[in-house]
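Sat 14:20. Reprocessing the chain from the morning session after the first attempt stalled halfway. Input below, unchanged.
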Amino acid sequence: MACQTGIRANAALRNALNLGKQAKLRLIKIVVNNEEMTPNYEFAGTANWRDDWKACLPECVDAYEPCFILFRLNTITEWVLITFVDDRAPVREKMLLAATCATFKSEFGQCYIEHEKHVTDRKDLTLTAFESWLKAKTELGPMSEVERELHNAQQERAAIAHAGPQHLKGVAFPVDRNAEEALKKLAHQQLSFVQLSVDTLNEAIKLESTLESLEPSALASKVPRDKPRYTFYNFDHTWEGVPQKCTLFIYSLPSSGSSIKERMLYSSCKGPFLGAAQNQYGVVITNKMEVDARDDLSEKALLEVIHPLPVEAPKQFSRPAPPRAGPRRITKV
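Finished this time. Tokens:
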């Protein structure tokens, strides 16, 4: 591994990388200039990544200027990192770029990079050349049963890694307008039931269904047990003679029936989404539940979550009374 130079990303590059992670940029070209990594070219792009590729590459690349190119295919976790180093470029610049590669990937986040490609000729940056390389990379040759199992395990690990950085608190997906309106109505007690889903393709929180009133006995039938969902339920009830209003958040995550990436995204989005629901839309969550296909969602189960039984304090062990004082007893054998 090349020795790292200590060259870091400047403020402009950090801003560009953040925009890229929000899917606001399609392409970012990075060069090493004045002992720092800086963006040299940015392209917002359209909805079609192939048209964007043909519009930018290889025209934005200079044969005498080594650079990193980040190109987003579809989602925020499908970035291609291209290291372009032409043979005609100055030796010092080629060495600087090679020694900065690990630092750059650390700055951007390895989990966002789906493919890496090293290019030494601008001809290899055409869309036709890239698609041929990508096809050859993704096609599988003949494999034994053991090799197939190892490959499937590797794919599952990659799906978990690309669902989002594990050290971060969560992934904040935007909430669509219908879901925002439903959450505001829920906060003002105009709705009793609001259910939302994570659109993994468009990376957004979307509204699934709403109800103005829902009896507790019918709640279980409204929560699907074969796919993950976020559910809010305004539970009006009486406890010990006192009417009470509670807002429950139910996170349903089935053990089967959904992909690993889908389950990871639901888990990663939950924290930021709940923060937005409470801080931006005014939802006051009194209790949270996490259920799978086997858990009970009856009225009794809801009451046990809201009003748990008091836990009895452990009883202290009472020592036996010491023997009474008196003359020493002699036991005859």
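Confidence is low (pLDDT under 50) at residues 163-168.
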